[in-house]
TrEMBL record:
Name used for this protein in its record: Cupin type-2 domain-containing protein
Pfam families hit by this protein: Cupin_2 (PF07883)
UniProt cross-references to SUPFAM superfamilies, sorted A to Z: RmlC-like cupins
InterPro entries the record matches: Cupin_2, QDO-like, RmlC-like_jellyroll, RmlC_Cupin_sf
Amino acid sequence: MTAQPFVVDAKDYGRPLNVVGETIVVLASGERTGGYEIFLQRGPETSGPPPHGHPWDESFFVTRGEIAFGIGTETRVAKPGTLVHLPAGILHWFRFGKGGGEMISMTSRLGASTLFADLDREVSPTNPDFGKLVEVGLRHQLTVPQSAE
């Protein structure tokens, strides 16, 4: 299939996915683009994923608030206007700061959109079962270090 041009207005957004308290809107899936994916991610204070890695590159552009990113053993706080790029396989995590925040994220291939849909469907956003979270992640080729389990 050849990817076709498309425009996504705010009124056309799909249902926001609730991934362990974080709201994720799929703006462009890999199925639609033929490759990369784009998301709008919003989270309340302290929300964010545990340390993990995956087989796709991922970039984040912070649009509101402060978001702490753990990259390997380093932690950086990103403010609006900051771009964070993570090559595939890099261990990372993030936490939305005081008052929550918002960012646009982009991945290098299809994968994250199906992961997020499965997490939305299978893991409670308010009382998540960490074992189930890891199980769903493993189905999508995520790596989670033993210390995070």
